[in-house]
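job 3f2a | input accepted
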Amino acid sequence: MHHFHVAHIGIVKGSALAAAIVAGVATAIVDPSIKVAMITGISIVAAAFVAAVVQMVIAIMNYKLQSMSYKLQQEMHVVQAETKDAVGEVKKQTDGMFTKMSEKMDNLTNAKEQQTIKLADKSEQLAHAEGRREGSESERDLSASQEEKRS
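job 3f2a | predicted structure (151 res):
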């Protein structure tokens, strides 16, 4: 808001300069004998006008700079929001990938456990079958040896 205040001061000074010029011209018309004093007065008024114009230009430039700064800040906020959204999306995708990998590992672990159980069952069945086979062979051998003794 400060730049508007400076611009108003410049406008006031410019208006004062115009009023001084009008007053000077009116005085010169009325009393031509004081032209030297008028020239001095006009030079002081001209210097004040130049100072007012410089302040107005500075105020306008300051306003433009603040406007550009505001626009850049708005753009930066947009970029920050987009970056935050992008990071959130990457995090969500990464979490999803981790969840899928965890599920696959759990499935593989379950499958390995099932295979281990089946393998243990088969081993047990084979051990029983081997025991029966040995038992049958023993019985045959015993029967054969008893038959040889009888004969």
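job 3f2a | Helices lie at 2-30, 35-150.
job 3f2a | closed
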